[in-house]
Amino acid sequence: MRVNRITKRIGLFLISFVIVVLMIIAILLNFIFTPQKITPKIVEILNENINGSVEIESVELTFFSSFPRFGLKVKEGSIFPNSLFNSKDTLANFSEARVSFNLYQYLKNDNIDIYEITLKEPNINIQMDSLGNYNFDILKTSAINEEDTDTVSSLNINNINLRKFNIEKAHVLYQDGISKVNYEAEGFNTTIKARKNNNELYLNINSTNELVSLYKVPEKRFKIRNIGVNSEVTFNKVDTLLTISKSDLSINDIHFATAGTIKPEPEKKQVIVNLAATLKSNTLKNFIELIPSTILNKKSIETQGGVSLTVNTNGIYGNGKYPKISSVLTINKGALKYKEFPGTIDNLDVELQGDFFMDNSQPSNVEVKTLNIQGTGLQLNANGKGNNILHPNAVFSMALNTDIDFTKLYQNFPIDKEITSQGNILADLKTSFNLKELKAQDYNNVNVEGKVVVNDLNISAPTKGAYIKSKNLTAIFNKNQDDAHPLSGSLQLEKTEMEIKEALEFSSEKLNALINFEKKSKNETVLNVNASINDLSYKTKKDTTFLLVRKAKVDLGLTPEKDRSLSAISSSFTIDSVAVGQGKYWVGIQQGNYSFILNQNPNKKWDVNGNVGFNNLYASFPESHLPIQMPATKLSLNNDNVTLNNAVVNYGESNATITGAVKNLEGFKNGKTVSANLKLSSTNINANELMGMFSGINVETEKEEKINTNDSVYSQKQAFKIPKNLQFSFITDIDNIEFAGLHLEDVHGGLELMNGHLQLKKLQLKTLAANVEGNIDYEAKSNQQANLDFNLHLRQVKMNEIQNLMPVLDTLFPITKSFVGKADFSIKASSQLDKHLNFNLKTFKGVAALKARNIMVLDGPAFRDLAKTFMFKNKKEVTPIESLDLEMEFEGDKLIIYPALLEIDRYKLAVGGEQYLNLSYKYHISVLKSPVPFKTGVDISGKDFDDYDIDLTTAKYKYYFTDKERLLKKADSTIIKKKQFIRSELNLLEN
Question: Keywords on this record (predicted)?
């Protein structure tokens, strides 16, 4: 006993001693091998032995936390792919990793025996490119057993053994460059335990995922929650075969047993897959658990019957190849009921199978052999086939017989209380078709037989903003024995309404349609539709497009695409009244007749050809504020080109009859060029209304603003911007134009809208004051400012009304109000206009000329003083002037009147000077001929015509109007040249 005690004490002492020694060694190791010292060495070793690269913030030895094993703790690590891989995205990064291993095995036998590796919260980004290369292929093939004694980081490794591998709360993304499908996992946790012998590696894999997503486009994801895998796997080193001997796959607690083999072939960059998955539980309730609760209420549900579901995956994955996927679903003698509701499903039988070849190496087929549901308010029998379903030439056939009583379903089952339903649907249908032929409108091989009847349907979900109501819907399809008309049908719709929140609204009081397929030849069948419509309304919520039809009859024929010819539609309409629009833009038609042919172009868009006739058309858009009205008119359409023949358009007080063509109407929407060559005639045009329409001024608002001033709204002009894509050319013949306060008559000439300009060319018009000829060019950069260039000739204009025709002259040339009589007045100028089309006088620049004969000057204080000064013989209230010729220049804030010859009474006078915007002036009058035999001059200056000064001075203009060449040379040549230049600019040299 004593010996035993001594032995135990010695043993305890030795153990304690060893522990203390190990602790001392650990303390020494931690003191000597600090993170600052070992981190760069470990990073160097790793980067020498992989084709990628590694970055690590710190590595520290752990002994106490991993005792009795030797360990490492790695913080903030990142692994990057091979530099030859096309994407440089990080392969993985992690906040912390722990490694514990057997140091003795490495020191003695050059074996790396790893007990455990744990990665915490890593982000793993696995990628395969279109050639089958992986970004994780980073291990150097010569890394093991390679000796390099010349480097401090060389390793001699005989064997590597990993016993346990953990991943905690990972985010994993796998991007498949071949299929273009991405797989993403959130909350990914995995534990892998391993053991091995000489030739085989045994793995136990336990994995859970909070959420797995599959997608090609990130916004369109297929999501599966709560996926788990618990598998036992054997990997044979000799034949590189991975055998799954026992595996449990769970989806939302529904378990599948999986078994099979996976054989990687790295040199071929592919994997041979042979897997079988079977639903573990064969009860219907577990299968129902797979159905989302939003579709089926699963509380307090009782079920009967068995379920069998198998999915087999066999074949090659990689290099554009995909394995075959076969599935079979069977439900036998299923039944279900709710404890608190009387409704039951008494019989549920389903048999469905499918074979899918995702690479189209063979046809993929699916077949619903049996779908039979019998229960309270529900009877449904269906079967069908889909052959070659992944190919454009897929062929489908199906049969459906159903009787659904929505009232009974709502009363006997736990339908969402926010939804109400009533009504009945009866359907008995058989159909078969080729998908490619159907898309190409080839109806030769389309077969439809049967009937669908809906009565008193009312399904409503107010909180979701959706409902559908229908008094009656009946659709009948018949397979005929007549080869010329192999298929016909009818559709009747009565008192039907539908609304889908934020999508559309639809209602129809009555709709009847007859459908028949007319066989024109062996390879061509035309679809004909004859329909009558009463009170139909359709509106989309997103783009606010709407259609309203009071009464209409429609005949339509659809010719399918065949060989190289494209589809075509011929149609004719007779409409009592219709309105169509988008937002505040709308067009309404009364008594319309249409005849169209639509041909599909190579871009699969429809070209339109035909005619439109109507008794009345009304159109409105926000900018107009008044409706546009067209009485009885016929239009010809050629795609987006329209031809008008004496089409009448009325807008407010304006009317026009238009003949010609407008091309590329689509340009009004897409901004491309819209061109037109038109002849326009009118009895009256109110230009102020039209300017308000183009500029967006609200006429009604303007009327309210003007009501207290008794001014007409139409006296308010408004600038407007001409869209640059409009290339319009008009020949005009207009009886009357109202523009501001002007009344213009007999307006003729060309009008063009080009590159944002409005141009009037060779304009001719009459006013009460004069005949006008000339050219005008208008351009606006915005609705706040415009530019105007004009060249006008006023023939025999009343002198005292010039400022009425051109209000700007009331300020720039006010002396015209002092004359009575007619003159010719020409002006060429440019100026900026404000938003009300008023001239900005500071920018007004141009030249003008006046030619008058036998006019009278009105009596006034200034003229009376001048008459006294010159001792005019005529003392009447008006004084005759035999002739007056003026050349003028507008520049900045002043008007320059160059020396002009004036014959009045017994005098010849030369007059010139300057008139300023502030109405001040400086004029000089030189006496060239008078009863007094000497020449003198008079300076007149003042702030207005009632505040002036008259001073006698020398004659400044005595050499400008003489026939003597010697005296003419004494005149200022620059002034003479300026006068000639002005007349040249105004094309008056011949005069």
Answer: Membrane, Transmembrane, Transmembrane helix
